[in-house]
Design a protein that fits this description.
Elements (H helix, E strand, L loop, with lengths): L2 E7 L30 E2 L8 E7 L2 H8 L7 E8 L4 H9 L2 E2 L2 E2 L4 E5 L19 E8 L6 H8 L4 E9 L2 E2 L8 E5 L1
Parallel strand pairs: 3-9
Antiparallel strand pairs: 1-3, 1-11, 2-3, 4-8, 4-9, 5-6, 7-8, 9-10
Length: 183
């Protein structure tokens, strides 16, 4: 039976088990939090993003989760600079033109400020520029896609938390916690 782990990845953690990057002090990796042999991430979550990362020991399950052809929705809570109007949200809903082509249509809506853990370090706040939260669900996984989509409609991302992938979510998991679930 396949193993599946739900991990609430903190800000500033690499979505891999080793840091083969910069010289100097190593950055935190999955091995800082998860000591389970034989599991690997199903997809990625950027160093400066937080939230749900799924890990499994089953290659077919890993492909089903990560491959865009399966159109598994990934839902993000996104704090953006500014206050998007309906026109900007409609652009996200219809798909946005990026350098690597049009995105698939997304689900996009403004939401009240979610009850999340504080981010360390906190986001940059500018008194003269408001911010707000949107829920954005996509069925692709291009490099830094959500950040590029919000910027393309004029609202740069300040904080990005992946809340769910398909039916799996981080509800009840604090940053750095993980839980094994039935695949």
């Amino acid at each position: 039976m396949a193993r599946l782990i739900l991990f609430n990845k903190p800000y500033g953690v690499l979505s891999q088990f080793t840091d083969r990057g910069t010289a100097g002090s190593p950055r935190p990796t999955l091995s800082t939090f998860i000591d389970v042999p034989g599991v690997y991430p199903a997809g990625r979550l950027d160093f400066d993003s937080e939230g749900l990362l799924l890990l499994t020991d089953d290659g077919r399950l890993q492909a089903r989760i990560a491959d865009p052809k399966f159109k598994l929705p990934k839902t993000y809570l996104v704090q953006v600079e500014g206050e998007p109007d309906e026109q900007a949200l409609d652009r996200l809903r219809k798909g946005v033109s990026l350098k690597d082509g049009m995105t698939r249509p997304a689900l996009a809506e403004r939401i009240p400020d979610p009850d999340l853990w504080p981010r360390d370090p906190p986001i940059r706040v500018r008194k003269a520029i408001p911010d707000c939260w949107i829920r954005l669900a996509i069925t692709e996984g291009r490099n830094r896609q959500v950040r590029r989509m919000t910027a393309a409609v004029g609202y740069p991302t300040l904080r990005l938390v992946r809340w769910s992938i398909g039916d799996w979510s981080i509800s009840g998991l604090a940053p750095g916690q993980w839980q094994a679930v039935a695949a």
